[in-house]
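Subject: Sanity check before I submit

Could someone independently write out the structure tokens for this chain? I want to compare against mine line by line before I put it in a report. The sequence has 264 residues.
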Amino acid sequence: MPKTTLGKILPLALLGLLPLAAHAETPEEKGLAIAIEADRRDTGWGDQTADLKMVLRNRHGQESIREIRTRTLEVKGDGDKSLSIFDNPRDVKGTAFLSFTHATRPDDQWLYLPALKRVKRISSNNKSGPFMGSEFAYEDLTSQEVEKYTYKFLRDDVLDGRPAFVIERYPAYKHSGYTRLVTWLDKEMYQPLKVEFYDRKQSLLKTLTASDHKQYLEKYWRPGKMTMINHQTNKSTELIWSNYQFQTGLTDRDFDRNSLKRAR
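---
Independent answer below. Compare away.
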């Protein structure tokens, strides 16, 4: 999975960054400038690996737990490549998910199902569907390129004691399950603290919260915990991240389609 659910945003440094954010004339310009600055601060990490515990909770609070290894490769001029490998429980062991994010064209995503010994391509029409029974959709798992959205700055706010920008994003790509996303972006870390997802009927569908952030390589912030609550089903999914490692030497070959079957 990418760095965060907001993920990597393509650098557009020529648009002015913080000076534009401070002096933008319109809410749309300021919202875009904030997104650009968030990208600038999270560019250059190269590759990362991390361990992930996924906790699925149904509407009655019953839990099931999955253990996942993740690998992510930063791609210049395009979106990230990511690979997620399921290790536990036994019924999903060996399942692998490969994602190539793109800025202006549909993302490429594949799922390897070991029981069938085949790779299934995820249709661009199905990106709003749930990922492996979780409350995260396939489109939530890609790096969120600047060009994927249009933006609007709403207001300044304070969330859990932390000053934040509140910006609204509108998906510019087809087949999104959302009409808009309202994001609380931390003013120090430029990382999302909360995201509200509104469905195609303009109703609040889900809320994502991110916490326990730590800084790596003296620059890059990553969350320790992310929780997605589905308000329409009362189900939730919690992601607990650990063992972040950066610049491990991953290459494109670690993210080709054959890597799905090699994943162990």
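---
OP: Matches mine. For the report I'm noting this point. The radius of gyration is 18 Å.
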